[in-house]
Amino acid sequence: HEPSSSAPMSEDAVEKKNKVSATDAAKKAARKAARKEARKAERKAERKAERKAEERKAEHTSQQSLARKAKQDAAREVETSGVPAHDSSGKMSPAETSAAPNIATPSVTFSTFEQTPFATAVRVALTDAGFSEPTPIQAQAWPVAISGKDLIAVAKTGSGKTLAFLLPIFHQLSLKKRACSAAGGLPAPRGLVLSPTRELASQIHVEAVHFGAELGIGSAIVYGGTPLQPQRKALSSGFSARGV
């Protein structure tokens, strides 16, 4: 017999070859898995982008629908009552005002702080705060509110609505005897302001504390999302003129 052309591999060589093959297979499997994950992530990103596009389209369609409905409602309101709807600024043209017989125009307005019945300390505080004269909403709302009549006032943000209702409240409270709670004879809340958001409530509270202090009238703020005990304590024990 002729000798074999190659000698049989040793056990170490066979083991080394098997390890190399296993390593190559693992690398190949890892590359395949990475490509699969990349394709999966790409498809996921595409689906997410499609959903966002659909949501934006739906939101735009909804806004258009709401705008059309608001326009239709305003038109129906004019047809049925003859009272035109306000625009976003809360103002109406002279022609619209004359066509709205159910809207009362104040017969008296305050063009200066000196014309108001507010305490001198309050008028000084207004001047110190940088106000030179009543804003249009204040000039018209103050006489009505001070007289004790119900009032609905509409004006854009930053027009002075907060002081338009706060100062008449403080004026009325300063003229009356302090009410006392049934238990302990402590001051009870005598005025209530409702706000749709916590942020707006905080803004109103800042003004209430500042101007109420001039008349010795305290203020407390109550809203959700915070511990109840401090707020309950503020309401049950009365508040200082500096507010709570």
UniProtKB/TrEMBL annotation:
Residues 1-99 are annotated as: Disordered. Residues 35-60, 70-79 have a biased composition (Basic and acidic residues). It comes from the Eukaryota. Keywords: ATP-binding, Helicase, Hydrolase, Nucleotide-binding. GO terms for molecular function: ATP binding; hydrolase activity; nucleic acid binding; RNA helicase activity. SUPFAM superfamilies: P-loop containing nucleoside triphosphate hydrolases. Pfam families: DEAD. Residues 111-139 form the DEAD-box RNA helicase Q domain. InterPro entries: DEAD/DEAH_box_helicase_dom, DEAD/DEAH_RhlB, Helicase_ATP-bd, P-loop_NTPase, RNA_helicase_DEAD_Q_motif. A motif (Q motif) lies at residues 111-139. Residues 142-239 form the Helicase ATP-binding domain. Gene3D superfamilies: P-loop containing nucleotide triphosphate hydrolases. Signal peptide: none annotated. This is RNA helicase. It comes from Coccolithus braarudii.
